[in-house]
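Progress note, project year one: complex with S-adenosylmethionine.
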Amino acid sequence: MNYIGSKKKLINFIKETLRDVVGANLNDTVFCDLFAGSGVVGAAFKTEVAKVISNDVEYFSYVLNRHCIGNTTPLYAEDLFEELNALEGTEGFVFQHYCKHRDNTREYFSADNGRKIDAMRQKIGQYYDEQRIDENCFFYLLASLIQSCDKVANTASVYGAYLKTLKHQAKKPIVLEPMPYELSVQDHCVYHQNASELITRISGDILYLDPPYNVRQYGADYHLLNTIAHYDTFQPQGKTGRRDYYRSVFCKKRDAASALEHLVQKAAFRYLVMSYNSDGILSSNEIETMMKPYGTYRVVATEHKCFGRKKEERSTIEYLHILEKRNS
Ligand SMILES: C[S@@+](CC[C@H](N)C(=O)[O-])C[C@H]1O[C@@H](n2cnc3c(N)ncnc32)[C@H](O)[C@@H]1O
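Model obtained:
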């Protein structure tokens, strides 16, 4: 999934840095991905550490992580994927509010895909309600649906706006594809909580922090994925059809520094490793000044090519701020 702030292309950099700091063998460590997003970082450590703790405040992200981190045993659902892909479409909430037709101008999905998304989402809920599937399989199907919807969304990248005309990819019929995940002998923990609260209740060895680094709220940018994940009914707001969304303190210039310091202060972890970008609302110096009093600090950096909103390639610097926390 093309997720804003995804660390997919930086996994090697993160892993190498961590091995350098903690040691090559992470087998006995508890690794926490407190702002998990798409889940790629936790997934990269899933089979290498004793336990991954994964968390994100957005529900669709929880669903992705509940599957790709939380599911550890084989799930046999080929027949369900076939059934779901063969469903007739139905005119449910997604079709009514997010597809173009006589009564609606929003066009996040083609009308046919909107109907199919409604039919698949309703059926997944029904399978679970009727106990045809367990919770693991429910999240497997739902995470797969979220990823498959994202592939045919008529957006530039996020759901803050839809395109004026259907783009090529959005005209293709949606196919529900299984979201891959790694099996593991270890059990992992996945949370859907505010990081500022969860931090007081967890402990481990490595705390990986990848907070939002600018003022754009994930709840606004990904509102439609939350709506498909929850599949509740509400009055969509304004031109974009947004739902009420969570406003993160980490996106607010005024609050970000103190919110991060709270995490650093409360962290019951030996190593803290925080990703932050040169475009971020806090400067590297501000982060260094905030972290240094809590232990031994250093920073490493790498150049990173990322895509902006208009899909142009830009270079930024990705920092990893590393703190070995002093026992207090
Ligand atoms: C930069 S993204 C993380 C990207 C992720 N590392 C990846 O590779 O996909 C930041 C994430 O922090 C989450 N977030 C924002 N505020 C939060 C909070 N207060 N508690 C937990 N998660 C939060 C957002 O929903 C978003 O998924």
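The chain has two domains: 1-70+248-328, 72-180+222-244.
Residues 72-180+222-244 form one domain.
No further modelling is planned for this target in the current period.
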